[in-house]
Design a protein that fits this description.
The protein is α/β, with parallel strands linked by helices and about 375 residues long. Helices cover about 40% and strands about 15% of the residues. The protein binds pyridoxal-5'-phosphate.
C-alpha cells in the first residue's frame, strides 16, 4: 500500500504504510486483524453465526461473567452502545446520577437530555478522580435515584476512576450501576465476581484492537430481563437486540460483518498475549516509556502517576509561543506518528495514546520524532505556563 502523499522521507510507518496512531481510537490494528476482514458472509451464514456466538462468549469470559452476564453487541461506534445502555436500562420513570470528570461523563449527561431521562450530575474537576464519599452522600440524600453511571478510564485526561469503590457504594444503597469502560476494557481488570454492576459497555476498537464499527454491552441477565419496553429507540434497544440474537443467532439489522471477522482475530491475539494481564502489561510499559521520555524532553504530564491509567497520557503545552499544536502535529505526522489534541478546560494540553498494536519500539520512535519536531520548531524549553 502507498504511504500517505505527505509522509516525509524515511518516515516510520506501520507494516501497511500508514502512520502509527497514538490516539484513543481509531487506533493501529495488526496486519492479521486487517487481513481477517477479507471475506463476505451473509447474515444467515452459519460461519458468521458461529463466529458471532464465539465473540459474545469470549467477551463475557473477559469479566468472568459466565452464567450471570450476557453479551449484546451493537452496530456503531462506542457512543451508540453507551446511548443504547442508558436508554435500555434507565426506565422513563427512573433517575440517573452521573459521575462526571471529563467529556465522556458529560456526553452521558447530554444523552440523558436527548432521551429525556431525569438526571443528576455530580461533577469533579478533570484532573481529579471521582470521589466515592460524594457518591455515598448523594445516594443517601436522594432515594429517587435508581441508577448510577460512571466512566472507568476518563479518556479526556486518561484518569482512572475508583470503579470498585463506586460499585460497592452503589450496591450498598441498592441502586443499579452502569459503566462506560470503553477505553479500559481488555487492559484493566474488571471481575464481575467481585464487582457488582448491571451493565458495562466497550467497543471493538480500543484495547481489544479490532477495527471500529461495533460496540457491546455485557449485561447482568437478571437486570436485562427487566428492561423490556424501556427503550425509546428500536435500533438502540439492547433488550430487543438480545432477544432476537438469542432466538436465531443473527443480528436484527445488517451485521458489521468485517468488523466481526476482525474482532474474532483480534480476540485470538488478545488471548495469545495473555488476556487482560498481558495487554495491560504492554500498555503499562508503553505508558512508562512515553512518560519518562517526554519528561526527559522537558514536558510535564497533567496527572500525578497514581491517577494515570496506562491508556492515554495528557501533557501540558509548553509556554514557549513557538509551540503551536498544529505545527507540532504536522511535523510528527510527517515522521509517521499521529497524536491527539487536548480536550480540557482546566489547562492547555495535548495527548499521546499508549494503546493499539504497538510497543516499545514505536513509542521510542515517537519520542525521537518529538525531539526532532521540537528542533524544527526552535523550542528549547518545554516548561508549561505556571498554573
Ligand atoms: C472512545 C470512548 C467512547 C466512545 O467514543 P466513540 O467515538 O463513539 O467510539 C465512549 N466513552 C469513552 C470513555 C471513550 O474513551
Amino acid at each position: 500500500m502507498d504511504r500517505p502523499a505527505d509522509a516525509g522521507k524515511g518516515a516510520a510507518a506501520t507494516p501497511t504504510g500508514e502512520p502509527w496512531l497514538l490516539t484513543p481510537g481509531p487506533l493501529t490494528t495488526s496486519p492479521s486483524v486487517k487481513t481477517a476482514m477479507q471475506h463476505d458472509f451473509g447474515s444467515r451464514d452459519h460461519h458468521l453465526i458461529d463466529i458471532n456466538a464465539r465473540m459474545r462468549k469470549r467477551l463475557v469470559d473477559i469479566i468472568h461473567g459466565g452464567g450471570s452476564y450476557v453479551c449484546v453487541p451493537l452496530q456503531g461506534s462506542g457512543t451508540f452502545v453507551v446511548e443504547a445502555m442508558i436508554g435500555t436500562f434507565v426506565p422513563q420513570s427512573g433517575r440517573i446520577l452521573i459521575l462526571v470528570n471529563g467529556a465522556y461523563g458529560q456526553r452521558i449527561a447530554r444523552i440523558c437530555d436527548y432521551l429525556d431521562r431525569d438526571k443528576i450530575v455530580l461533577e469533579r474537576p478533570e484532573n481529579m478522580a471521582i470521589d466515592p464519599a460524594e457518591l455515598d452522600a448523594a445516594l443517601a440524600g436522594d432515594p429517587a435515584i435508581t441508577h448510577v453511571a460512571v466512566i472507568h478510564c476518563e479518556t479526556t485526561t486518561g484518569i482512572l476512576n475508583p470503579i470498585e469503590q463506586v460499585a460497592q457504594i452503589t450496591a450498598a444503597h441498592g441502586r443499579s450501576l452502569l459503566i462506560d469502560a470503553m477505553s479500559a476494557f481488555g487492559a484493566i481488570e474488571i471481575d464481575a465476581r467481585r464487582i457488582k454492576f448491571d451493565a458495562i459497555v466497550a467497543s471493538s476498537n480500543k484495547c481489544l484492537e479490532a477495527t471500529p464499527g461495533l460496540g457491546f454491552c455485557l449485561a447482568r441477565t437478571e437486570a436485562l430481563e427487566k428492561t423490556k419496553g424501556n427503550s425509546h429507540s428500536l435500533a438502540l434497544d439492547l433488550y430487543d437486540q438480545w432477544r432476537a440474537m438469542e432466538g436465531n443467532g443473527q443480528w436484527r439489522f445488517t451485521p458489521p460483518v468485517h468488523t466481526i471477522l476482525s474482532f474474532d482475530q483480534a480476540l485470538r491475539e488478545f488471548e495469545a498475549e495473555g488476556g487482560v494481564t498481558g495487554r495491560g502489561k504492554r500498555y503499562s510499559e508503553n505508558c512508562r516509556t512515553l512518560t519518562d521520555g517526554m519528561k526527559k524532553l522537558g514536558f510535564q504530564p497533567l496527572l500525578p502517576a497514581e491517577l494515570q491509567a496506562p491508556i492515554i497520557v495528557t501533557f501540558q503545552t509548553p509556554s514557549d509561543p513557538r509551540f503551536e499544536f498544529q505545527a507540532f502535529y504536522d511535523s510528527l505526522r510527517k515522521k509517521g506518528y499521529i497524536i491527539y489534541p487536548g480536550k480540557l478546560t482546566v489547562a492547555d494540553t495535548f495527548r499521546i495514546g499508549c494503546i493499539g498494536a504497538l510497543g516499545k519500539e514505536q513509542i521510542e520512535g515517537a519520542l525521537a520524532a518529538v525531539a526532532e519536531a521540537l528542533d524544527e520548531l526552535g523550542i528549547a524549553d518545554c516548561t508549561p505556563a505556571a498554573a
